[in-house]
Design brief:
Order of helices and strands: EHHHEHHEEEEHHEEHHHEEHHHH
Number of helices: 14
Structural class: alpha+beta
CATH architecture of the largest domain: Alpha-Beta Complex
Number of domains: 3
Bound molecules: iron/sulfur cluster
Mean pLDDT: 92
């Protein structure tokens, strides 16, 4: 069967997946999109990084990236992206400066590609895309890097199951067939954090089947319902979306007066959960506007409310020095104090095991995991859980 749109992209699929109405407004009705500040900001940061790295490669340089050049490029990208506000400008500058410092020594020969275009044949479709950056790690490994300017970090599950990364893996394997390993990294620029993952054959096969299924769904869909979600506030078609307008006005359709009707309880709970995500994101958007003004003022008093920024402190005690101080004060042995105070965070152990897998190999790490399982201490607390079923 021939489809009208045989060219797919990750953006096209994820738009349909996230909200069919947004897909229709964008790709079928071809409505003029109005990207909000976060989208324009992300685009401007990407443009700077692309040019900065490309120039480094073209000049065949080895050494640090130029911070001065990054600043000049940011000024240009800022104007082109029609951004405004000192706080947003400074935020971009801080991200770029920190990126340049984090890169350290960059050998142009290790950067294999910047904004690399790819095409993948998936069933009757061709998936098109661009990868932000690809590095050669060693003679067997390439690293695909995708820049993100998100405020929220992805969860480990999101990184490990990202469709975007599965597609990038397939593309990297096609473009650099010598690579036996493909490392996939989301560079979370606001957080100075690289979240890395890999894919096995089973995951890649599932991704291909999923893309083909989704591709067919986008072609065959006759209805395009609005799916309110936490990202509506960033949606470039929110101005044309009646569901978003109604959500901002707090319009509700399901009110459960009889709580013995559990079907109705669940329906209202889901409606409220969806609306609260939209309203929470809108609250954040409004707070960002106020915060930008608080850069220039100690406080604002508006609509009978006083707004201020304050420094919230958080504490952590370095292990060795803390034990030393406590041992001196109490006369207790270090081992005694460790037994009483120390435990290792689950995430820290998982991160270490993931790193160790690269040097020790999967089998050795699996044995290690089994050994650790035998000593782990579990605590349980009840949590409410809800997930849509098909
Ligand atoms: S605002 Fe939300 S519900 Fe409306 S089109 Fe955009 S993503 Fe869909």
């Amino acid at each position: 069967m021939a489809f009208k749109n045989q060219h797919l992209s990750y953006s096209r699929l994820s738009r349909f997946e996230q909200c069919p109405l947004s897909f229709k407004l964008h790709y079928i009705d071809k409505r003029q999109d109005e990207p909000g500040v976060p989208l324009r900001f992300g685009k401007a940061v990407h443009a700077v990084l692309e040019t900065l790295l490309r120039e480094h490669m073209e000049q065949e340089r080895e050494g640090a990236l130029s911070e001065e050049r990054a600043v000049a490029l940011w000024q240009e990208a800022w104007a082109a992206g029609e951004l405004s506000g000192l706080a947003v400008f400074e935020e971009g500058l801080a991200i770029l400066r920190s990126y340049v410092r984090r890169q350290g020594h960059v050998d142009h020969q290790d950067v294999l590609a910047i904004e690399k275009r790819f095409e993948l044949e998936v069933g009757p479709f061709t998936v098109l895309g661009f990868i932000d950056r690809v590095d050669r790690v060693d003679d067997e490994t390439v690293e695909v890097i995708d820049y993100k300017t998100n405020r929220l970090l992805f969860s480990r599950e999101e990184v490990d199951s990202s469709l975007q990364m599965s597609l990038y893996h397939l593309a990297a394997r096609q473009l650099w067939p010598w690579a036996k390993r493909v490392r996939l990294t989301f560079d979370m620029l606001r957080h100075d954090l690289r979240m890395t993952t890999e894919r096995d054959e089973e995951q890649l096969a599932a991704a291909i089947a999923y893309v083909e299924t989704m591709g067919r769904m986008t072609e065959e869909a006759r209805e395009f319902p609005a799916r309110l979600n936490a990202n509506c506030v960033y949606c470039d078609h929110r101005q044309d979306c009646p569901a978003y307008a109604a959500a901002l006005q707090g319009e509700r359709t399901v009110i459960c007066e009889d709580t013995s009707d559990l079907e109705l309880v669940a329906r209202e709970r889901e409606e409220v959960a969806r609306l609260s995500k939209v309203l929470y994101a809108r609250k954040q958007e409004l707070e960002d506007v106020l915060k930008a003004h608080l850069d220039a003022h100690d406080e604002l008093v508006l609509a009978g409310v006083r707004y201020r920024m304050f420094n919230a402190a958080s504490k952590s005690y370095p292990l060795d020095r803390t034990l030393e101080v406590l041992a001196r004060a109490t006369g207790d042995e270090r081992e005694q104090l460790v037994g009483r105070l120390a435990s290792i965070d689950n995430k820290a152990v998982d991160g270490l095991l993931k790193d160790l897998a690269k040097t020790l190999g999967k089998d050795r790490v699996n044995l290690l995991k089994a050994e650790l399982e035998a000593v782990v201490e579990r605590r349980f607390s009840q949590r409410f859980w809800a997930k849509e079923v098909a």
